[in-house]
Amino acid sequence: MKVSQVSQPGSRRFRLSLAVLTLTTTAFAIWLFIWSLGDISKNPATWLLVPLFALLVLIISFSFWTSTLGLWLTITQRRQSTSTSQASHSSLPRTAILMPVYNETPASVFANVQAMIESLATTPHAADFDLFVLSDTTNPDIWLEEERMWGRLCQRLTGPTNVFYRRRPKNTARKAGNIADFCERWGTQYDLMIVLDADSVMDGQTMVEMARRMQDDPALGILQVPPVPVNRLSFFARLQQFSARLYSPVHMEGFSSWASFDSNYWGHNAIIRVAPFIDHCGLPTLPGVAPLGGEILSHDFVEAALMARGGWKVALAHDLAGSYEECPTTLLDYAKRDQRWCQGNLQHMRLIISEGLRPISRLHLAMGVMSYLASPLWLLFTLLGLLAMAIDGIWLGSTQERISGLVVFAFTMFLLMAPKVWSLVALAFDRPRREQFGGWSKIIPSVLIETAASVLVAPIMMLFHTRFVISTLLGEKVQWNAQNRGDGDIDFLAACRVFGPHTLTGLVGSALILFFAPGLFLWLSPILLGLSLTIPFSRILGSVELGQWLAHRRLLLIPEESELTPILKLQQRALEQHEQYANAHDRSQLLGELLSDPGFQALHASILQQTAAGLPAPEAKVREWTQAILTQGPESLSVEDRRQLLLDREALRELHIQYRVRQLHPEQAATASPM
């Protein structure tokens, strides 16, 4: 099926206005910058500064005017967020809810699953949804715990929504391959699929509304609902949760106005029409070797571009609430995630010029690339500026040059900081939302704390991003392992090891500036201070105690903490139940339970029959495992041996019989020889 692309009313006008305003602002900033430099013909370093500044200020101006447009629309339209479905009681399209997991904590995963199923049960459309836990887990103990919790959950749930579990023997192509495997096996049975992350949770009413909007607009291919970060307790996590909750709505309003039906997909908390996804969104393999070649890692932007190329709408439902995720809790975990995203986004440089992509899709890809290239460019711009001063033999210049430099700096900072101010302006027109944040007496100090922390974090991430970009371009591959989703401080030795280069850079840079150009130290102090204090600051950011101290004083608090939404209440209750169950069952003993419990054995065998049949181990290996288990216990097997054994149905069946005999009749088993 091929559909025509239709833009929202006014989107072309918004795009034209945004382009004119961005280019005008950029041109004015360039003029200011050249004016501040004086005679640039005498200094070759300034020849590079001007084009660098032009590119960087273009990015800043675009973001500024997107947020400014969002402020204007927020004030004039006053659109209210909602998670309430307007669907009639007639059936919705068959929808699969997909939760891909990879070595995650099963208690958290199935708490989210349970909460969403219970939330759907409060709607009249629960029977229109099925939920799939799509496991790529490689740890055999976590694998067994997933199966155990899934079986237990299925016994407890009584609603009309089915919950299925599938584990792939090999996690080929990571999450994208996991979703593709679902589409190949079961995709034809469903019209729509809601794609989640392992830490995602969505209100049932929100999912119903998403399906209704897809039903009402047959040309809609992807509908993305912005997720709100919640549930984390550390100081760093609270900073992210507060900034996302306060600042994002205005920016999203502006982004949606010009992106229209050429919007983007973020890989989770979105609903997708299955048939066109299968037809158009098969990911190509990039020529060459990793990291820039091979499998596409950041698949979401590419899938959105391919869906749009196929003639389907990609939209942002920024008015919908009830969509949640979790964020990294320490600066180290945040950097690790960014390193994966950096490598994936840099691959997009080769896709921007792909044949047939829509111009806005190319813009989205370019923006993703520049979100990481901007850091090394800012660092290069700073170093070139110092070099230009050294070549001129001056560090402060004349009074006029100091004033003009201050004007450029002030204008640039205005473009950077204004979007935060715009969010406060929008809040002034929305009293109910303002009260949800605790009123101005809590909002203003929270914004000051968040801004100060952001200023210190920025140079740290600048160095991280610079290293990530350089290492990727030099061919260093990053491992896409399971994310650390728990709260916890960074220990001192780990902080010294990871952030030592940042600290050394800050201290050496401070010493050089103070010795050669002390007058510049104040200008560069945000960068130098952030880098010099990275080790203690990273530990402060990871502190749960500080995060809780602030929360008790209602600082950096988000509305969802002041009053839990229904889905978060269900999630919290379910998490307590699943964690209690997990704590009562030692994960390391699950292989023994599998061998001794006929019900668990049958459950595991039925799962294998669907996905991993025909993976028998060599007979000699099976005899070795049997001997070890019957004489030393299941814990004696290595992780790799346990993983191979769990894939062999026949070996498990025979071993189960012998293990049960040994348990029930130890006197007979003592005289029997293993198979």
Euclidean distance between termini CA atoms: 58 Å
Question: In what order do the strands lie side by side in the largest sheet?
Answer: 3-2-1-4-8-6-9
Number of beta-strand segments: 10
Total helical segments: 26
Structural category is alpha/beta
**What's the CATH H-level homologous superfamily of the domain at 95-328?**
Spore Coat Polysaccharide Biosynthesis Protein SpsA, Chain A
Based on CA atoms alone, the radius of gyration comes out at 28 Å
Apparent shape: globular
Largest sheet: 7 strands, mixed
Name the CATH architecture of the domain at 95-328.
Alpha-Beta Complex
Strand-residue proportion:
5-15%
Task: Identify the CATH class of the domain at 95-328.
Answer: Alpha Beta
Helical residues, percent:
55-70%
Low-confidence segments: 1-6, 83-87, 670-675
Question: What is the name of the CATH topology of the domain at 95-328?
Answer: Spore Coat Polysaccharide Biosynthesis Protein SpsA, Chain A
Mean pLDDT: 91
Briefly characterize the structure.
The protein has 675 residues and is an alpha/beta fold.
Structural notes for this entry:
With 675 residues, this protein is an alpha/beta fold. Among the domains are: 95-328, Alpha-Beta Complex (Spore Coat Polysaccharide Biosynthesis Protein SpsA, Chain A); 591-670, no CATH class. 63% of the residues lie in helices and 7% in strands. The chain is built from 26 helices and ten strands. It has helices spanning 11-37, 44-77, 106-120, 140-156, 174-186, 204-216, 235-259, 274-280, 299-309, 331-347, 359-392, 399-428, 431-436, 440-473, 492-516, 521-532, 534-541, 544-552, 559-562, 566-584, 590-596, 598-611, 619-632, 639-646, 649-664, 666-669; strands at 95-101, 129-135, 162-167, 192-195, 201-202, 220-224, 228-229, 270-273, 313-316, 323-325. Strands 3-2-1-4-8-6-9 form a seven-stranded mixed beta sheet, sandwiched between helices. It has a three-stranded mixed beta sheet with strand order 5-10-7. Helix 1 (11-37) runs antiparallel to helix 2. The longest helix is centred in the first third of the chain and has 34 residues, at 44-77.
